[in-house]
Amino acid sequence: MNQVKVTERVQKQLFELQDLQYRDFQAKLLPTIEKETVIGVRMPVLRKFAKGYGKTEEAKEFLKILPHQYYDENNLHGLLIEQIKDYDRCLAELERFLPYIDNWATCDMLAVKVVKNHLDLFIEEICHWMKSDRTYTIRFGIGMLMRYYLGDGFRIEYPRKVALVQSDEYYVNMMRAWYFATALAKQYDQILPFIEERKLDVWTHNKSIQKALESYRITPEQKVYLKTLKI
Fold this sequence. Notes:
The protein is mainly α. It is built from 14 helices and no strands.
């Protein structure tokens, strides 16, 4: 199957689903990419398209094509990876795709639920990604840690690893803050010492508290105390 023709067909179909008003809105939220690379397909519409497209042979060919020209193509790529039921194949496709993620929205969209049955193995990949020098690979790793390891799979070593991540990148530190705010909601007693003992850099420390104060899962009493811990 000719990859150029596959790309042309996919782009044509995505443009047919374009919502210009949404494109303009979405582009403003994505400062790391050019507006011209945003087609403007609303996520529910793209998910529906991906569900059907993922059943075609052409979808397998599309997954081989990297990099993509458009933001929406990247999102489609991620949604197709999510449909892979085999853990090893899903992971291999994820490894190929992560270096090409260039914005927070594509990064945070990826849930790859198949990993829920392999959390003992997946944590090794997460730790590897968190040591990357690529902004969105690190962010993805921390996001997966937040999504799948704050419940029964929680270990105190995981927030320690997030605390040790050092980066000047806004989109890395924002995810670190999001992680600690969510962790406070789910593992308050275990996570509170990270805030009390100031184990995070000042910006991430204060942003974690801010996001926790915005959470409905943090009690009013906890919020009162957390306010006293701002630096």
